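Example 5.3 — Vacuolar protein-sorting-associated protein 36
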Amino acid sequence: MADRLAWTDGQLHVGEALVTTQNGVSINDGPEKTDYQKGSIELTSHRILWKDKSAQVSSVLLINICQ
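Solution (predicted structure tokens):
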């Protein structure tokens, strides 16, 4: 799964727009649970950002949806 995800600071890029957010979202690797449980996601015009709200340090994973 590491080949599909990357860490980011969670800031929107120039020209990127926030579309919607959703809380209570988990990321699984097929049928396997991961450590990425019950976070929140932000769908932007370019990416999906998953945020761990319980982490002491900002933890934001990104999945690019366009190049």
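Remark. Residues 46 and 67 are 8 Å apart (CA to CA).
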